[in-house]
Description:
By secondary structure, the protein is mainly alpha-helical. The chain has 2 domains: 1-45, DNA Cyclobutane Dipyrimidine Photolyase, subunit A, domain 3, CATH 1.10.579; 48-135, Deoxyribodipyrimidine photolyase-related (Arc Repressor Mutant, subunit A, Orthogonal Bundle). Helix content is 56%, strand content 0%. The protein is built from 8 helices and no strands. Helix 1 crosses helix 2 and helix 4 (78-89) packs across helix 7. The radius of gyration is 15 Å and the shape is globular. 20% of the residues are buried.
Amino acid sequence: MQLGMNPNEVHRWHMSMNIDAVDWVSLPNVIGMSQYADGGIVGSKPYCASGNYINKMGDYCKNCRYEPRRAAGDGACPFSTLYWDFLDRHSERLRLNSRMTFQLRHLARKSNGEMRAIRAKAANLKTDDVANALL
Length: 135
């Protein structure tokens, strides 16, 4: 979702990678919940997270070379970069969701320069090589 992958392609990948995957379970979970591509029918808000949130929720970042609070520049966490880029790309649609008010307020506080840097870093992360490595 944060990479901007085609939700149908993500579903097809999920079905091919899991021997016990069945459409009636996987389709709503992948399209609706993990990709938020059903407009909020299954999930009430997008399930996306910044590196900072991931860091707070566990010890995944303990030995990581990236800084979870950074979204651009040297050492920026790819999850944080893609999180802010996702919110920026979908901010108009997400404004209709009252559960996204807090996140969108934080997005609005980012300077134009910071958002340009985030968009540029996100574009680099979305190259085929990087996207394929993450999948």
